[in-house]
Amino acid sequence: MNKNMFSREPMKWILLLLVISYTTFLQPSSSSSSPEVEAKKKQMREKVRKMFYHAYDNYLTYAFPHDELKPLTKSFTDSLSELGNLKLEHLPTDYKGSALTLVESLSSLAILGNRTEFERGVLWLSENLTFDVDARVNLFECNIRVLGGLISAHLLAIDPTNRLIQGSYDNQLLRLAEDLGRRFLLAFDTPTGLPYAWINLKNGVMEKETTETSTSGCGSLILEMGALSRLTGDPRFESAALRALRKLWSMRSSLNLLGTTLDVVTGEWIEYSSGIGAGVDSFYEYLFKAYLLFGKEDYWRMFHTAYLAVQKYFRHGPWYHEANMWTGKATYWQLTSLQAFWPGLQVLAGDVTAANSTHREFFHVWERFGVLPERYLLDHQMIHPTEKYYPLRPEFAESTFYLYQATKDPWYIEVGELIVKSLNLYTKVEGGFASVKDVTTMQLEDHQHSFFLAETCKYLYLLFDDSFMAKKNYVFTTEGHPIQISSSWHERLPESYLSANWTFSKGETWGGRRVSAMSLQVCPALGTASGQQVESACHVRDALSSHRCLGDEDCGVDAMTCRRRHCSAAGYCGLWIAM
Ligand code: DMJ
Asked: What is the per-residue burial (b if ≥16 Cβ within 10 Å, else e) of 232-260?
């Protein structure tokens, strides 16, 4: 019996996976939307545009050029150096901030089509932004927010179809990105090649710096650093990020699970329990997106293996709990707001059915509380006593956007409408948008995170607007910054890139018709590879279609729960509770 349908026909899998990713974003939407839905989308995108400018204008008025806006007191915080708990007093007194929210807003301004403001932002940053400051920053946060923001804005600026810059643009943002990337390289100088979590931008790694980092912290740098190498011709950025990623991957357990925290000097795990949320999330995301952006088979293989392990050991129905990386035993039964990105990633990978079921659960939680609490204890059916906040996170909107693109189901437009309504009702204040401190009381907190402009508003806008995605293929970084997919960045041109192929499946089963996640209604890659409709990526069929068995080896893995099926005394495969 073939236990793994992926490995039987890997090429077809890969081909179809790309087909899904591409058709997902390239199908003209208007053809499938009713005039009512189109009218609703138009009305909603104007609402989101207003939200963005309310946040952006207040930032410019009260916080710029510092990093982020404090909307309740109409003041600022230099949070780039605070990200990850460093307090402001560690900064030099003359520090003026890195205009973090402006850097993070550029790609959103481009998507909104605001050429004047985009150009103004680019010019200001070109003349004023410097990284030669004695500030200790978190490598991961600085990478996804600043390096990613600069690279994405640079790519948008040089794209002639956008005509975002009226005057001359002389690659200033790329030069800033390169300067920052060089400073990052010092963090990778460890015996393992795994980077320190913290660096001082001026002086490199500080004495007695902590050697502890997280899986996402050292395993999700490849998109930005890889893109930087491709754009500058300097291979060191991509090499450093890839070496770290490979080292991290070599540390996985025999179950193909990773922990959450580790030591960059010894290369040993510190926290064995992990899931798909905090400390790990973007590691999975970057394996798959690196495959889309750079076309290396290796990324695909790692993602595929890691994805199956997640589905097998973390998934429980629509939920994902945490598990011990060595034993696979469940540890924490918690829903976290960060996990809400997972359905979006599943859409890209073609597992739309599973994505939809998880997204629906998050929707119910959103409906119940008005927003998503940071942590919800599934086993006690209550909000975590100290993590009751909602800091304007984008993940639920992000997944809603991906699911709508894949399915064109107007229900997701309604979900987006609800998100917009809640944000305006609970978090909008005169000075911007404020984080929620406690979702049970809707008490606010004085912080407008830069990702509200980089991601939350952007994904909501893209949910209601198809024009940006219709033009080009993009990979969105974990901070929502688009990077255009270019075949010149691929080591070799995958078959699926050939224009004659990519919109059609090659298999006979589907008669060469256009394939999308929606048209198949199931995990399409598996469905096509096996010629049968199956439910999810972990599904393994029983040896006999009659489900008769002589022993456990004749039984497969259940599609919905991802649990092993066993052979009963009467000779039938099933999920027998007593076994
Ligand atoms: C963002 O900074 C990024 O999406 C990151 O990967 C984790 N989540 C925050 C926003 O919630």
From this structure: beeebbbbbbbebbebbbebbbeebbbbb
Q: What pLDDT is attached to residue 492?
A: 61
How far away, in angstroms, is 141 Cα from ligand 1 center?
A: 9
User: Could you tell which of 451, 456, 458, 477 is best to mutate to test the pocket of ligand 1, judged by most ligand atoms within 8 Å of the CB?
Assistant: 451
Q: What pLDDT, in 10s, does the model give residues 90-99?
A: 555 566 668 9
**H or E segment at 262?**
strand 261-263
Please work out, in degrees rounded to the nearest 5, the angle formed at the alpha carbon of residue 504 by the alpha carbons of 500 and 508. Answer: 115
Tell whether ligand 1 has an atom less than 6 A from the beta carbon of residue 294. Answer: no
Is 478 near ligand 1, meaning CB less than 6 Å away?
Answer: yes
* Mean pLDDT to the nearest integer, 494-501: 40
Alpha helices, DSSP H only, in 31-142?
A: 35-62, 100-111, 115-128, 139-142
pLDDT digits (tens, 9 = 90+) for 520-553: 323 333 333 334 444 455 567 788 888 888 998 8
Q: Which residues are catalytic?
A: 141, 281, 374, 395
Question: pTM score > 0.70 for this model?
Answer: yes
Sign of the alpha-carbon dihedral angle for 476, 169, 294, 279 = negative
Q: Is the CB of 284 under 6 A from ligand 1?
A: no
Find the length of the chain.
579
Nearest CA to ligand 1 atom 1: 479
